[in-house]
Design brief:
mainly beta; 52% strand; 7-stranded mixed sheet; 0% helix; 128 residues
Length: 128
């Protein structure tokens, strides 16, 4: 399994920017993709963005963040980043980093069940 530690959360006003990072350790050689999910109070955890850990690093985003968030990776440092701009109060949530082993390669990237490692989360608060 892979251990994940997120950092970079905080508070920002609407329209501002924040960057999140997630460092992976452990069995990182088996990682197929890494993603960010988020969970707002009283809501289910939802997909935000994903990046493949092999090949060219394909990315996909939830419609709600497309054009505002950018996911990137630093394979040498086993780190994935989420740069968030144009933040809205609706972006307020705990953001979780997730990793999927190769055995999950045929599972949908947007589903929580497609990931076998999770970080503890980092809070992002956007005020209006």
């Amino acid at each position: 399994q892979v251990q994940l530690i997120e950092s970079g959360g905080g508070s920002v006003q609407a329209g501002g920017s924040l960057g999140l990072s997630c460092v992976a350790s452990g069995r990182t050689f088996s990682t197929y993709r890494m993603a960010w999910f988020r969970q707002a109070p009283g809501k289910a955890r939802e997909f935000v963005a994903v990046i493949s850990w092999m090949g060219g690093g394909s990315t996909y985003y939830a419609d709600s963040v497309k054009g505002r968030f950018t996911i990137s990776r630093d394979s040498d440092k086993n780190t994935v980043h989420l740069q968030m701009s144009g933040l809205k109060p609706d972006d307020t949530a705990v953001y979780y980093c997730a990793a999927a082993a190769r055995s999950y390669s045929s599972s949908p990237y947007y589903a929580r069940g497609s990931y076998d490692s999770w970080g503890k989360g980092t809070q992002v608060t956007v005020s209006s």
